[in-house]
Design brief:
Elements lengths: L16 H7 L6 H15 L14 H10 L4 E4 L6 H7 L7 E5 L14 H10 L5 E5 L4 E5 L5 H4 L1 E3 L1 H5 L10 E3 L1 H4 L3 E6 L6 H13 L15 E7 L1 H4 L7 H6 L2 E4 L6 H12 L13 H16 L11 H22 L15 H4 L15 H20 L5 H9 L4 E4 L6 H5 L4 H10 L5 H17 L4 E5 L2 E5 L1
Parallel strand pairs: 1-8, 1-9, 4-7, 7-8
Antiparallel strand pairs: 2-3, 5-6, 10-12, 11-12
Helix pairs in contact: 12-13, 12-14, 13-14, 13-16, 16-20, 19-20
């Protein structure tokens, strides 16, 4: 995205206040700066938040309206919905750099200084006042709410300065927190419901009055700052977590969401996993294996055993997708196969990448452990995708063969070439595999065979026993 700076080209960048005035640079508030640059980006049809998928018609238009309305914003949604990425993405709508009084602690606007130091420098130097340039990437700061104190984000009397002889009655005795230091920038507070009430009071004063008051010190700063918040709805809406005055002063609430379509979730999963599939022992991933990986997350979000208010992050899909690929590549290396194609048996290893990422519903009457719940959502995902791919005609014939005492063992370290011989005992299942993908590639055949067997199990046509990556299917 291209934005227009108020400054001249880098070669003639003003170095003094006089040169700045001569350049024609005009001062703007941060919100006006974001407003103007957003309009230019919209007119040029630039990508506003590159890398964020699935919000083009929902969240991003709401963010645009909030910026054009010059609002502070709260991004509310469950974990893994790109709230922090959206907040950080606003940096791209700032000018590449802006001038400030050199040496000023709060990056004072040369035309409208707010600190005593900057005013003194300008009064003494006049047009010779030195100018520094503040880059856009340095004009954003964020803080996680738990453990945050008033002094961290707003400020405090500095004991070291008092010990050095500074009078407590002067501005120089203050240590400024993150928000004053982001004067003319953007400050983001993550998980605002966990913020101490005293700090919340300080924040709503800044949102309403745009001034800073530290321990009753008689100073008022006309702060120019955009303040962003993030929160999970389960805690934000809980009585007493966020004081009403703070809620009332936040201009726009932006509601994020999980992908509406499985295809969108897959696109996010592939983008964020960012795995090189080539190189030694390249990996090829059938679409249905990607669909199963993402469907596992979808099923987890629907599960009665998982706390729906906490949500299931996109990181759940990403971590499991990486593990599935890693298991397939390990097999190729161990067995000396030319390439790897992930199988259902590789999903037995995603327990390690899934554990700890789900918040169980403690109010439920179930007696299932986390691993049992993960196993259940994997089976539900396989059933969903399998039913989309396979005609159920022939299931009974396959089940009848298993009913005669046939047992088929597959696994994550079974050579691809071994599947044809093993499935000779269940020819209809081998034929079902060809329905899914007619490829003669042994690794693809092995993948499809496992998909058929897992689908039959998910539809309760056959049973299975699993141990250490090996799976036995029988009746």
């Amino acid at each position: 995205m291209t934005t227009t700076t108020h400054a001249t080209t880098p070669k003639t960048k003003p170095e003094t206040l006089g040169e700045l005035r001569a350049s024609g640079w005009k001062s703007k508030s941060v919100k006006q700066e974001l407003h103007d640059n957003l309009l230019r980006a919209l007119a040029a049809r630039d990508a506003l938040f590159p890398g964020i998928i699935g919000y083009e018609d929902t969240v991003i238009p709401e963010v645009c309206l909030a910026l054009l309305a010059k609002h502070d914003m709260l991004f509310m949604g469950e974990k893994g919905q790109a709230k922090s990425r959206l907040m950080r993405g606003l940096v791209r709508l700032l000018d590449p750099e802006i001038p400030c009084v050199a040496g000023s602690e709060l990056h004072d606007d040369p035309y409208a200084p707010i600190t005593r130091d900057a005013k003194r420098i300008i009064a003494a130097e006049g047009d010779a006042t030195p100018i520094a340039w503040w880059k856009r990437e340095d004009r954003y700061a964020e803080r996680l709410s738990p453990g945050t104190k008033f002094a961290d984000v707003i400020g405090e009397i500095d004991p070291a300065k008092l010990a050095g002889g500074t009078s407590m009655s002067t501005e120089e005795a203050l240590h400024f927190g993150l928000i004053p230091r982001m004067h003319r920038g953007i400050f983001a507070m993550n998980e605002v419901p966990e913020l101490d009430e005293l700090v919340q009071v300080g924040l709503f004063n800044i949102l309403e009055e745009r001034d800073v008051q530290i321990r009753g010190f008689p100073i008022r700063f006309d702060l120019d700052v955009v303040i962003l918040f993030s929160a999970n709805p389960s805690t934000y809406n809980r009585s007493g977590k966020v004081i009403p005055q703070l809620k009332d002063r936040i201009g726009s609430l932006i509601r994020t969401h999980y992908p509406a379509e499985r295809e969108t979730g897959i696109a996010i999963m592939e983008q964020e996993a960012d795995i090189e599939l080539g190189g030694d022992f390249p990996v090829r991933i059938p679409l249905f294996m990607k669909e199963i990986c993402e469907q596992i997350t979808i099923e987890a979000r629907k599960s009665d055993f998982i706390d729906i208010q906490s949500g299931v992050s996109a990181r759940f899909s990403i971590a499991n997708y990486r593990t599935m690929i890693a298991s397939a590549r390990r097999r190729a290396a161990v067995l000396g196969e030319s390439h790897a194609i992930p199988r259902i048996s590789d999903l037995s290893h995603i327990i390690s990448s899934s554990m700890g990422k789900l918040e169980l519903d403690m109010m439920s009457s179930h007696q299932m452990g986390e691993q049992q719940i993960i196993d259940a959502v994997i089976v539900a995902a396989i059933r969903k995708v399998f039913d989309e791919y396979c005609d159920k005609h022939g299931f009974e014939e396959i089940a009848d063969i298993f009913g005669k005492g046939v047992t088929i063992e597959v696994g994550d370290l079974l050579p691809s070439s071994a599947y044809e011989e093993r499935m000779s005992r269940v020819p209809p299942a081998w034929e079902k595999a060809f329905e899914i993908n007619p490829s003669e590639d042994a690794a693809m055949r092995a993948c499809c065979v496992e998909f058929v067997l897992a689908g039959l199990y998910a539809n309760e046509k056959i049973s299975r026993t699993t141990r250490h990556g090996r799976v036995e299917y029988e009746t």
